[in-house]
């Protein structure tokens, strides 16, 4: 089987074992992972799927992920939805309940709901990281990746001043080569002039394939956004027929809150095996260990 074919088989398929074993051996030989207690099957699969089972590329991604976590403790060591509950309850962020036609998860960020006087850019970035850690455990998301909608209505100078060159590099690093999720598309709505300098800081650090997946829709976006997403996927506020954006934000906030314990475990021990097969239900996350 080639990489894309391997991506389609189940997590417990015997054909994946040699790839997981090879990545584990290579990773445990890396100085950056000295002292790591375990590299679980589920943890390693995330990186293999993100790079279509190319072990060398998966190893590079895994080491970048570990390096990013070490270099960014202000973001990665506090994965608590409770710590940013006010921002979440202001309907800042949602993962839409319906996947798009290709099976990708669709994430929405509403910048106008972020008050920069109340919440720092670091705290806002934590919201994105928490969501990414949760959905990266979903097999279907590992296969099909994510698409992100940034609604920039309300972006102001106060937002722009919070995004330093250092933070811009961290954001671009996660998008490009430091997190085990395939970014299939980035859609920017209501792009104001104040956003251009920030985008200019981020853009040089992005690989060409990510740049080519960035789409700017302006303020008259309903028709152009509909070229990428079907009506059942999008909220009515964005020209769709799905849940309202407020309902979608509230639902995802509740799901993140149910994952509080899971995310605390990821922050402390990211290489362990954590099953979130029920994280999106009222049953809460189910955690298993090797």
User: What series of H and E elements makes up the topology?
Assistant: HHHHHHEEHHEHHEHHEHHH
The main β sheet shows up as:
5 strands, mixed
Distance between the termini: 27 Å
Report the uncertain regions: 276-290
Q: Globular, elongated, flat, extended or rod-shaped: what is the shape?
A: globular
How much of the sequence is in beta strands?
A: 5-15%
Q: Give the class from helix and strand content and strand pairing.
A: alpha/beta
Instruction: Please list the strands of the largest sheet in the order they lie side by side.
Output: 1-2-3-4-5
Mean pLDDT: 89
Oligomeric status of the shown chains?
single chain
Number of strands: 5
Radius of gyration using CA atoms only: 18 Å
| Helical content class | 40-55%
Number of helices: 15
Task: Describe the protein's architecture and organization.
- The chain is of the alpha/beta class and 290 residues long.
- Helix content is 45%, strand content 9%.
- It contains 15 helices and five strands.
- The protein has helices at 3-7, 17-28, 41-50, 55-71, 73-76, 85-89, 121-135, 139-144, 157-162, 165-176, 196-202, 208-211, 222-226, 245-258, 260-268; strands at 93-95, 105-110, 146-151, 183-189, 214-218.
- Strands 1-2-3-4-5 form a five-stranded mixed sheet.
- Helix 2 (17-28) packs across helix 3 (41-50) and helix 3 (41-50) packs across helix 4 (55-71).
- The chain is globular, with a radius of gyration of 18 Å.
- 37% of the residues are buried.
- Residues 276-290 have low confidence and may be disordered.
């Amino acid at each position: 089987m080639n990489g894309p074919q391997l991506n389609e088989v189940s997590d417990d398929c015997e054909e994946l074992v040699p790839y997981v074993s090879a990545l584990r051996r290579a990773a445990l030989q890396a100085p950056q992972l000295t002292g790591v207690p375990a590299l679980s099957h589920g943890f390693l699969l995330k990186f293999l799927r993100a790079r279509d089972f190319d072990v060398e590329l998966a190893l590079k991604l895994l080491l970048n992920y570990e390096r990013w976590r070490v270099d960014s403790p202000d973001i990665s060591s506090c994965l608590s939805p409770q710590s940013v509950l006010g921002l979440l309850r202001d309907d800042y962020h949602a993962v839409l309940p319906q996947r798009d036609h290709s099976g990708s998860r669709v994430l929405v960020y509403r910048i106008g709901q972020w008050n920069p006087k109340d919440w720092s850019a670091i705290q806002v970035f934590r919201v994105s990281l928490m969501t990414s850690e949760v959905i990266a455990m979903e097999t279907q998301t590992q296969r099909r990746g994510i698409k992100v909608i940034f609604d920039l209505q309300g972006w102001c100078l106060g937002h722009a001043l919070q995004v330093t060159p250092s933070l811009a590099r961290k954001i671009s690093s996660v998008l490009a080569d430091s997190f085990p999720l395939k970014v299939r598309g980035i859609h920017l709505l209501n792009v104001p002039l104040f956003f251009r300098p920030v985008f200019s800081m981020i853009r040089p650090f992005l690989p060409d394939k990510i740049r080519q997946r960035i789409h700017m829709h302006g303020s008259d976006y309903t028709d152009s956004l509909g070229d990428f997403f079907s009506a059942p996927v999008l909220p009515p506020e964005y020209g769709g027929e799905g849940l309202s954006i407020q309902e979608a934000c509230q639902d995802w906030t509740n799901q993140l809150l149910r994952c509080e314990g899971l995310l605390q475990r990821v922050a402390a021990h990211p290489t362990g095996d954590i099953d979130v097969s029920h994280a999106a239900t009222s049953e809460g996350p189910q955690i298993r260990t090797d």
